Amino acid sequence: MFEEYLGISTDYVVIGMAAVILLLIILMIINVVQMSKLKKRYAIFMSGKNAKSLEDTLVYRLEQVDELIENNAANERNIDALFKRMKFGFQKYGLIKYDAFQEMGGKLSFSLAMLNEKNDGFVLNAVHSREGCYTYVKEIIDGNSIITLAEEEQQALDAALESNK
Q1: In whole angstroms, how far apart are CA 95 and each of 55, 144, 148, 150, 156?
Q2: CB 98 within 8 A of CB 109
Q3: Which residues cross the membrane (predicted)?
């Protein structure tokens, strides 16, 4: 009948149908193997747990994520507050030790410059002599002093200005 209408032998039709059936059987076997693997993975995933305990685990993990987000926000606020406070703390230091008098040894006198981020602060000068120790403080504004600085005080100030570069 096919030969009359289509010019195709029935043998070719039967062989074609057998090839299609063989292909479908192979696809079905592949599908069964994949389903078997999926069932094994699902069994491992669900082993020892019921739906309620799995839901509890997920809810617990989501609560942990929310807590981490809150803690991160609190940490960022604290870091911002610390950076604002640091601007006013002393961040730059310069220390020069020297002998104030020729007869004194050991470099017991010193000049200490302490500056904040804006180069505001002070220079502390301690002069040690046989009679005692005298300290002087000179205010520093924007890296400069209104009062003339001694050589050692200027060296301490310069060291402080260079310390944070």
Answers
A1: 64, 17, 18, 14, 5
A2: yes
A3: 12-33
| SS3 (DSSP) at 119 | coil
Q: How distant, in Å, are the alpha carbons of 28, 92, 133 from that of 126? A: 95, 19, 7
Which residue in the block uniquely carries the two structure tokens 């406070």? 85
Instruction: Provide the residue-wise pLDDT of the chain in tens; the chain has 165 residues.
Output: 556 666 677 788 889 999 999 999 999 999 999 999 999 888 777 765 566 677 788 889 999 999 999 999 999 999 999 988 888 888 999 999 998 877 667 788 999 999 998 899 999 999 988 888 899 999 999 989 989 999 999 999 999 999 866
Q: Which two tokens stand for residue 97?
A: 């030790």
Distance CA 134, CA 1 (A): 127
Distance of alpha carbon 68 from alpha carbon 75, whole angstroms: 10
CB-CB contact of 158 with 143 (8 Å): no
